[in-house]
Write a structure and sequence with these properties.
4-stranded mixed β-sheet; 9 strands; Immunoglobulin-like; alpha/beta; single chain; globular; 105 residues
Length: 105
Amino acid sequence: MRALLLALTVSLLASAANADDPQLVIKDHKFQPERLEVPAGVKFKLMVRNNDPTAEEFESFQLNREKVVPPGKEIPVFLGPLDRGEYPFFGDFHQDTAKGVLVAK
């Protein structure tokens, strides 16, 4: 019983912490929001959710990241610490519409 209670408490704490993670959503082959403020100077987890019926990729040369996001799935992208500034990203499979920028403040 104690182990179950401990596991439940840890699970609740983990999901509460996730609520503060910056989030991007892919919908209609676009990132929403297109401009997202993130913390400068600290490591953080960016959650990317793909609401489209096809795969997309979160890619950024400046952030040195390239991760495929399967349709209907959510993935974490671990970043930082970032210097203050702007970091463009794009969806490699729909480069004409899937564009955005992280703004580290």
